[in-house]
């Protein structure tokens, strides 16, 4: 594996490539997370909604890695958006993960039945209690991120959103750059659709890379963006890390940005 690239945010050094675990379940999840850790992944993303935190935690334990070398993210689901429920949901996630704290805890998606300020109050409680080092949001648009930032004194660390060549999130990207807010890109390969895009294939041929590797390189080349591609395949996990030995030209970046 070539040297990992990092993004510095609020004093943290975050790997630009992490491992997403959505739809990973059971022992297959444990094996996939363990293989990723063994090959050099150090950022893991899970959620109570994924129902795989226990398996992620077992993989972390089996890896033998020191806790402080990992950046672990989980998320609270909408049935736990009340202040006290947020705190309990995080405690439950930590118990399943067998961890003392999370590096990042996110509101999984915007809610409607519980005021955002109440949910965020619970998140801040967790920071003050040392259960979550940072808090953030997921699937928020610009107006909601702005509202969230206005309601708390601690930084909103990231907004985790769908971000790939066919869904470049231009408005959100512009806002996030101006506010020094990290974007965590999920589904960076558009659920495999990038592999069928001729322009990505042709660019990849120049560098000896696949269309998927070109897409990942394009995503993390954006200022303030990291990504968490999901992959249960050892080969794909390795390929996703093998993107640090080439650089897209400005013309190639613009061509990819114009797709669809």
Order of helices and strands: EEEHEHEHEHEHEHEHHEHH
CATH architecture: Alpha-Beta Barrel
Find the CATH superfamily. Answer: NADP-dependent oxidoreductase domain
Rg computed from alpha carbons, rounded to a whole number of angstroms = 18 Å
**How many H/I helices?**
10
CATH topology: TIM Barrel
**What is the approximate shape?**
globular
Topology, number of strands: 10
Concise account of the structure shown:
By secondary structure, this protein is α/β, with parallel strands linked by helices. It has 10 helices and 10 strands. The protein has an 8-stranded parallel beta sheet with strand order 3-4-5-6-7-8-9-10.
Task: Write up what this structure looks like.
It is a single chain. With 260 residues, this protein is of the alpha/beta class. It has helices at 26-39, 53-63, 83-97, 116-128, 142-151, 170-179, 198-207, 211-220, 234-241, 250-257; strands at residues 6-9, 12-15, 19-20, 43-45, 71-76, 102-107, 132-138, 156-162, 182-186, 225-227. The chain is built from 10 helices and 10 strands. It is globular and about 55 Å long. The model has no long low-confidence stretch (mean pLDDT 96).
């Amino acid at each position: 594996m070539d040297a990992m690239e990092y993004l510095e945010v609020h004093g943290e050094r975050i790997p630009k490539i992490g491992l997403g675990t959505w739809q990973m379940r059971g022992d297959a999840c444990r094996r996939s997370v363990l293989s990723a850790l063994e090959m050099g992944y150090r950022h893991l993303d899970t959620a109570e909604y994924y129902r795989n935190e226990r398996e992620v935690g077992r993989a972390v334990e089996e890896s033998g890695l020191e806790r402080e070398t990992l950046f672990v993210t989980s998320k609270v689901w909408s049935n736990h958006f009340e202040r006290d429920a947020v705190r309990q949901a995080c405690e439950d996630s930590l118990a399943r993960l067998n961890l003392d704290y999370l590096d990042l805890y996110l509101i999984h998606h915007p809610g409607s039945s519980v005021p955002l300020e109440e949910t965020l109050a619970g998140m801040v409680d967790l920071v003050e209690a040392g259960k979550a080092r940072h808090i953030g949001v997921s699937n928020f648009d610009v107006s909601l991120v702005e509202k969230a930032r206005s309601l708390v004194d601690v930084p909103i660390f990231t907004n985790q959103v769908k971000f790939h060549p066919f869904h470049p999130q231009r408005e959100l990207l512009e806002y996030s750059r101006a506010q020094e807010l990290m974007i965590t890109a999920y589904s960076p390969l558009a659920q495999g659709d990038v592999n069928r895009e001729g322009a990505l294939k042709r660019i990849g041929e120049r560098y000896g890379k696949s269309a998927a590797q070109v897409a990942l390189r394009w995503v993390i080349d954006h200022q303030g963006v990291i990504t968490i591609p999901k992959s249960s395949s050892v080969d794909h996990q390795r390929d996703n890390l093998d993107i640090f030995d080439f650089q897209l030209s400005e013309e190639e970046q613009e061509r990819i940005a114009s797709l669809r």
